[in-house]
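> run fold PHP domain-containing protein
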Amino acid sequence: MAKEIIDLHMHSYYSDDGEYTPTTLVQKCKECGITIMSITDHNCVRAVSEGQPAAKDTGIRFLPGIEIDCTFQDVNLHVLGYGIDYTNDDFYLLEKNIQEQQKQASRQMLLFTQKLGFHITENDMVELAENNYWKDCWTGEMFAELLLARPEYNDHPLLSPYRSDGARGDNPYVNFYWDYYSQGKVCYAKIIYPSLMQIIKIIHNSGGIAVLAHPGINLQNRHELLHPILKTGLDGIESFSSYHDAPAAEYFLNKCREFHLLPTCGSDFHGKTKPAIRIGQINCTIDTEEIATLLNSYFPQVN
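> ok
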């Protein structure tokens, strides 16, 4: 039997920071030899209806998925939902709620960016987002894309780390987001996300399983929260990720074994916002057949 090549975490243009269509993602997965995939857009399930039949046509097993923003003890987290009934109204209500809040937060982020000394306007951002699905929602990555392309800011000291030869130049757009627009940073605009427990309930009610996404990123310097988080009813941990080196992967794999949870793997591929991340870059330290067997036990019906 051919070796399973699995990537359960990637984003289409139905994410506010994704680049490609669902069909294009399926094609890229086929080219990379992926045999089991999931498109997990931010707070949106619209990619599933396009991606699922495209994957079936190419012989790839496809898990309907989503990545949802939520909070636990005032810390923002991401939870992946797999095997969900993507027609469940809860997911469309979730998208509407987040989208409406992001519209307001985007204008706050613009003001904060201007206070850093950058002369950009609302029209600049509207023009940049004109081909996006989330047209009225701007991200830290989008601000970075605009600023790094402006010739007048070629020598700006705040941007120098994000140039090709800079310390943060590997994934410049998303690194700029993490450094300036993520929770607790100077350009952060608060959005009221559902609680972790609410999201687990929504995923479970839709027939899916809930998996903690890339904890090595979201729980940096907050590792004391991992154990209480894992006691909330989660079904798995994204142990293998482009963000996790081998020691981190082993740590989260051992937590799965300790708490009897499913270990999953995903690259978090986005395209241009994270150019250093490629499809299939999961840094898995165990035989992927083990993960495939576990997935089969959860989702024997998935084509």
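The longest strand covers residues 65-72.
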